[in-house]
Amino acid sequence: MKFGAHVSIAGGIQNAPLNAAKIGCEVFQMFSRSPQGGPAPKLTPDVVEAFQKNAAETKMAEWVIHSPYYINFASGEERIRKSSERIIREELERGTLLNAAYVMFHPGSAKDVGQDVAMKFCVDGIRRVLDGYTGSTKLLIEISAGAGMVIGDTFEELAELLDGVGHPELGICFDTAHAFASGYDLRDADAVKKTFGTFDSLIGLDRLKMSHCNDSKVDLGAHRDRHDHLGAGFIGLDGFKAIVANKKLSHMNLYCETDPEGVAEDIAALKKIRKSV
Prior knowledge:
The protein has 277 residues and is of the alpha/beta class. It has helices at 16-22, 45-57, 78-98, 115-130, 155-165, 176-181, 189-202, 237-245, 263-276; strands at residues 3-6, 27-30, 62-66, 102-105, 138-142, 171-175, 208-212, 215-216, 227-228, 253-256. The strands form 2 sheets. Strands 1-2-3-4-5-6-7-10 form an 8-stranded parallel β-barrel. Strands 8-9 form a two-stranded antiparallel ribbon. The protein is globular and about 50 Å long.
């Protein structure tokens, strides 16, 4: 299990590995475009070469791409659904150019059309994204915190999406803060064992590819997405110790999405835990 964080691509995506190394990352997450909108920066051969050189020189073991925030496969507007599909497919293609392991995304919100139609829209949209795709970067659905009518905040919904799409390489990105806010306890070893045991029975740990590693500013089941530094929130350090120590989870890497002020300390804390277990 290796540790890292979400890092900036300011000044060019080729700077991401350098920014990751500065805070002690062994792996890193980034955007490949602005998360708020606008055209994606071109990945010219020179940019890709510089990125790969920097990733190799900083000895990064893995890197992943977070999709933009405005993706909504469940929108009532066809224009938004089609745009979401196009952008996620582009992110997969861009990830393949950069040799990224995964692109993760939130499916969207059912508030426009209701749960049943929203799930169908999501399944159909993800299918279209993956239709004919032959790149190396894999697509992951990220568990949501459960605010409003977001799709994918329960293991059952995630399983329904995976089963509906029916693509063997579609996987899951866990997020400790989101899962905790959705009602899955992670505060100690027993809770971690139970939560991931449920995940295994409903989805399968083989579909669990990576995890965002964030403490939570809100309590269990609060259904709000509020990240905190490790040990400062309602999950607490015992929960993260249990995750790192759990041998069934050792195949996945952990990526902090905590505030830049203090994220290096979060990574250092995870490394300290790893040494102790």
